[in-house]
Structures are given as C-alpha cells and as structure tokens.
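Before we proceed, please read the two lines closing this message. Tell me what the token row says about the fold.
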Amino acid sequence: MKQTNGQQIIQIFESWSPKKIAAMENDPIGLAVGTLNKAVTKVLVTLDVNLAVVDEAIAQGCELIIAHHPPIFRKLANLRTDTPQGQLFEKLIKHDIAVYAAHTNLDVAEGGVNDLLADALNIQQRQVLIPSYEETMYKLAVFVPLNEADAVRQALAGAGAGHIGLYDSCSFTSSGEGRYRAQDGATPFAGAVGKLHIEPEVKVEVVVPETAKNKVLRAMFNAHPYEEVAFDLYPLETPAKTMGLGRIGTLPEKMTLQAFAEHVKQSLHVPAVRVVGDLQDTVEKVAVLGGDGNKYVQAAKRAGADVYVTGDLYFHVAQDAEAIGLHVVDPGHHVESVMKEGVVRKMTTLCDAQKLDVTFIASTLSTEPFQFI
C-alpha cells in the first residue's frame, strides 16, 4: 500500500462526484477548512460538521473530514473564537484537520445520496427525477495486439469506460491486421527495427463519459503493450448521459400508503414520518429526493409519482401536494446520513484499487437536531 495525501484522495473522490455536476449555483463545495497538501491516513465521513464530530475526528486520528453539508454555507462576517462557529474552526485548525464538502454534487452523482436513499427504499427501474446536468459521451477505439486485448478491456472497464444503462464492461471487438515499421531508437513490442511488421490486432471500442475521459486514457496507456498507441477518441451525437437530483422508480409490489410510510420509517431508521394523503390509497411509483425537496413537488407529480419522499416539507407545500393528488412521506432532512456508510464503501473501493494506504470511517454521531416525544 502507498502512503497518500489529501490531494490524491480528493482527486479520486471527484472522479466519482465532480464539482461540475453540482445542481445548485454557487454551491459552497470543495475544501472549506485547512489544506490537502499533507499526508492523510484516516478520513472521517459525516453528514454535518459540529464540535462533537470534530472531537470524534480527533479521537479517531483523522486528518481529513468529508462532509455532505458545507460547514461554511454563507460568507463569514468575522471569525471570533468566542462563538460556537468560531470555536469549531479554531479546533479544526489547531488539530490540523481539513474539511472537504460535497453537497449537491454528491446528491447528483451516481451512487450518491439519492441513489443510496433509493437503494434503502428498494426503488427499482429508477431514473433521474430532476435533470440538471448532461454529460457528453465519447467513443474510444483502440487497436491492440490480439493476445493483449483482455488486459486492455479490463483496464478500460476498471477506469469507468463501457457503462451503458444497467450494464458495465460493455465493449465491441473487431479483428484485423496492424502494420508498422519501427524506426531507429524504437523498442517495438513485436517485429524488428527497420522491417515492416504485420501484427494480428483487434479494435476494442468502448463508450466513455466525459468525467472519466482522462482516467480512461491513462488506464489505456498503462495497460497497452505498444510504446505508441493507435487510438481514436471522438464525441458522440447520441443522447448525452443525463444526471440530476432525485430518483423516480417503482416498488417491487404495490402497497398502501400506510404500509409504505412504515417501510420508509424502518428502512431509513427514523422514529416518525409525516404523511400527506389517504393512508389506504395504493402506491407503486415512488420519487425520492434527499434534503429539502419542497420546490420539486410539481415535478414529482409530472413524472407520474404516486408518492414523493422528501424532507423539510412546508405546511402550504403539503397542502399543494394534497390538492394535486400527490402523496408525500417526509422522513426529515437527516436521512441524508445514509451518505456516511455509502461514501465509506465507495471511497474504500476506489482507494484500494489505487493501493492507497488510507482508512475511511463513518461518523457514529447523529447530527439530527430534532427529538420526537
């Protein structure tokens, strides 16, 4: 395993959840406190950053915190250490703990907050609820010696190429002959310098999302046996990959709204939910959006949802939902804490693949401010 630093960890994180897919303009994402230019052995993953979470990071020996909710959401007028917010930053700086925030980019990312919520609720055949970003897709065609093709295919798939819908490792291969003459100073994989060589080759074609383009090309060069790789890379005019907030899909089987509300309680580990609609009505198509989803009630209805799961529902918005016949289940904002275990799993997998010596720890603390009596 290789020692790593904060920059490497965040580069890997942003290959999965890049800043450019953030759904909110001027979203305060990225490095909020400290520096990434240092060795990092442990990372604490949390929904929020408060003094208790900082104490947890100190006790665990973490040099970096990855949080979903930015600790600095609006510009600071001052930084006084006799205020709770000032004390938070003072403790972080004194203990050299950096804080990186991934907010709406983590909401939008595949496998991020909204997919984790949909997973917990067993929502199937899901699609994006609120499109907010279209990613250009590329076609990569690379010419590889026949016996080396499997290694190159595996490297491309491992770097993020070849994802089509619910399928991964997708590629197309066609056979042919490659011809070349190595010049003086070359070290050919096969053949001799100065002589024309014919090599049985295959053309491997894969689709590549724009966010993975550089990583895929690096993987191709590293896995390919030729010192000069012949390849084509061009944008596709087929519909771009759509990303966005929320997810909508179907339940494995229909259930009453009351049964579904109980399902939400148990699946998201909350003591209570607020429900809009007739509890005996049947629901099957479900929209889910983590955090405050008030302004997307109409979008959920237009998408054909029978029920909409979101937090922080306002009184008058609840009345509007009732008026248009949309059932709503509000489990609160804190259910976004599913991101803690989800980010730990994803980042552990990504960093292990790079053989980086870093441990990700899910915060065990609840930052839910509400109690139910």
Q: What stands out?
A: The longest strand covers residues 241-256. Residues 47 and 337 are 5 Å apart (CA to CA). The chain has a mean pLDDT of 95. Residues 338-353 form the longest helix (16 residues).
